[in-house]
Design goal:
2 copies of one chain form a homodimer. Chain A is α/β, with parallel strands linked by helices. Chain A has 5 helices and 10 strands. In chain A, strands 6-7-5-4-1-9-8-10 form an 8-stranded mixed beta sheet, sandwiched between helices. The longest helix of chain A has 13 residues. The two termini of chain A are about 25 Å apart. In chain A, about 50% of the residues are buried. Chains A and B meet through helix 1, strand 2, helix 2 and helix 5 of A and helix 1, strand 2, helix 2 and helix 5 of B.
Chain lengths: ~190, ~190
Amino acid sequence: MVVGRDAPTSADFPLDDLPGAGRMDLLARCVTAALLRSHGIRESVQVRLVLSDSFTVRFDGATLQGLHPDERSTAALVRATLDEREAAIGHIPVETSPGVSLVRMGLAETLAAAGGQVYRLHEDGQPAADCAPPANPTLVLSDHRSFRAEDAATLEDADARRLSLGPTVLHADHAIAVAHNWLDTDGFETY
Amino acid sequence: MVVGRDAPTSADFPLDDLPGAGRMDLLARCVTAALLRSHGIRESVQVRLVLSDSFTVRFDGATLQGLHPDERSTAALVRATLDEREAAIGHIPVETSPGVSLVRMGLAETLAAAGGQVYRLHEDGQPAADCAPPANPTLVLSDHRSFRAEDAATLEDADARRLSLGPTVLHADHAIAVAHNWLDTDGFETY
């Protein structure tokens, strides 16, 4: 789950300036880092992009089609989804393309819907190498800025554990790649 | 070091179709995965993109300026560099912008110039968790395809060690993020 604080919630952003579109470049890279392996999809992964705390785009690896590795086409997929936002009524998701859906929810509702042990990255968190990977974790990341106090409180309410991936603060997409490696290797044990 | 087998060697590629430009999208993400941490540059890192075995673009974290996290602007930086390719004569690099230079070299010459213990990723390689990170490694990655036989032979000649980052085959940019984590944590020990 990636919290895009300034992310667009309508389809009127340009594909030629993704950094200027609420850091859609970063959000797109987070989607591909979470869902793609070389020549394939991570079928057991779901990605939720929380856009400006009001809409959430969900990508389900089990049924996803049409995701490519580059930022521009991934951002275009988000944009096509937002183009159908009027069909997202209440808290009922609308599937906008195979494996991609949109729902009118912010962070708190999206966290409640996700389930599983929640983790957030934190410099004072438990080192990943000392922490047995859980079966069905929800990892929550912020975009280029730290969580707002209210988002951090929402994560506290969801019993989020603090996890450290290392001494270097990483971009969210790179953190996702590292977190996958932690899970792929059963905590750096299985290669 | 990233080997882009079909990568463009001239500046006439479009920024709106980076996947079609010899997978410049992937090469751009490799540059940013290697050089950027959150809100900063990895000053001790050098990236070399080997383009179609004929030109190499080198990014030096110590002096680099103007690198942004998104694919498009990074590809534009590569394109601006290639626009000065006639100034790259023999094996003498030409600095095209601060910390970015271009040299008329393929993989073998670029490997010889890089120095340090060479690693290549391989599914049968030594698990990263069992391998103490060296002081000054050169990690060589291929683009979306495997190394050609002749590139693999060049790596053999350079005494490349085989390294495994896990059981899942990753995109090159994600592999770079994982390799950095291996180095940042002193082999998953320091958090």
